[in-house]
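During the reporting period the student researcher (J.K.) took over the structure-prediction task from the postdoctoral fellow and processed the backlog of single-chain submissions. One of the processed entries is reproduced below for the supervisory committee.
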Amino acid sequence: MSQRTSYTQGTPNWADLLTTDPDAAKSFYGQLFGWTYDDVPMPEGPVYSMAVVDGSAVAAIAPQPPDMAAQGVPPAWHTYLAVDDVDEVIARVEPAGGKVLMAPFDVMHAGRMAFVTDPTGAAVGLWQARAHIGATRVNEPGAMTWNHLMTDNESAAVAFYHQVLGLTTGTVDFDEGPHTIFISGEDTVAGIAAARPGVPNHWHVYFAVEDASAAAQRATELGGTVIDGPRHLSIGTMAVLRDPQGGMFSVFVPNPAAS
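J.K. obtained the following structure tokens:
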């Protein structure tokens, strides 16, 4: 499904990049993915740049908050999970071992959100949709196609997301052996994988491209870095990349035969 009008609870529905140089990041991703931007001034002053593909919002780029920049926090992509009622969900976060980083608040008419960390330290947004459901286009070149929780404590993470969001889990097998997936209702919505050595636990974002090798080469030409790959797996081809400011993400081309 490429066009979305809604998301079930626990499904990744949005991703944004908080970076030290939004203009440079917009240029990088615009040339890499063909993004154009709808710049939305926020009440606090900064501009939230909505990335657009064929008229659909797919992600966003924004400046880091001043306190985050002052602490030298590296730029990072952040995943948001859809929730039906963010205030109800947030009440379960701390009893389940997580921490509330940002209590629920309204984002103008777009929705209501909060930001938390799970017990393994991975930060994630919680988004209750109003006018903005999240990404309205997915699984097409330039749009978000997958999200992985990268963690060093899978059992703690699984228990947290089940208790807080009602997600269940299953297992699929491919090249690297058994792989845990998150399930919302009957739909597979995300995966869990071991965090890379030296990389903090986090939610990792994958964007669809037509050619992962070409995207990796183009990212390098634009000043980015190839961290891993391109790797050819039974499910498709992927590469882990870093933008010039330090934001890490992946590109992915699915293998039609694996669908």
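The committee noted the following: The chain has two domains: 12-129, 144-258.
J.K. will present the remaining backlog at the next meeting.
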